[in-house]
Amino acid sequence: MKILFVCTGNICRSPMAEGILRHKLHAARIEAEIDSCGFETFHVGDHPDSRAQTVCKKNNIDISSHTSRLFRKQDFDHFDRIYVMDSSHYHGVSRTARSAGDMKKVDYILNILYPGSNTEVDDPWYHDVQAFERTYKQLEAACDLLVKELRPVIKEQK
Ligand code: 4NP
User: Fold this and answer.
1) What is the Cα–Cα distance from 17 to 12, expressed in whole angstroms?
2) Which one of 110, 123, 134, 139 would you pick to mutate in the ligand 1 pocket, going by the greatest count of ligand atoms within 8 A of its CB?
3) Distance from C-alpha of 46 to C-alpha of 68, rounded to nearest angstrom
4) 21-70 pLDDT, tens per residue?
5) Which listed residue, of 41, 109, 132, 158, carries a Cα 20 to 30 Å from 47's Cα?
6) pTM for this prediction
7) CATH classification of 2-157 is 3.40.50.2300, yes or no?
8) Contact at 8 Å (CB) between 25 and 147?
């Protein structure tokens, strides 16, 4: 199973989601490949925002080594699932998609918690560290449920 998280700058929400899911899958001894990327060039090559790193570190998750990269159409070939944070990423991904099959892999991450609602993960970048704490909690709740859902799926693939 290969899972990709997508946000705008790939320095806050998606690297947090990547770190949280990798940490939880490792604890559950579930093997999967996790990555994240973004749509804006501003931060390509940068490590995650220090506030995102701090909040993750408080939860024993080290995301410091991630470097921001852009979403590319080959991601549709490599990944089984692509989770976006908000409608701008959903539309960005859909503009890159080559087929309906590509878009079958794509969903809003909070649809894991609230199916079909297309609820967005607000961008914490413009706010204080408390906003990053709230983002962490939202992403963690989604990843907890995702791990539960993936456990039988990945066992079946083995
Ligand atoms: P992210 O947050 O998409 O969660 O990584 C942002 C980071 C940087 C910018 C926008 C959103 N920016 O405009 O530079």
Assistant:
1) 9
2) 123
3) 5
4) 999 999 999 999 999 999 999 999 999 999 999 999 999 999 999 999 99
5) 109
6) 0.97
7) yes
8) yes
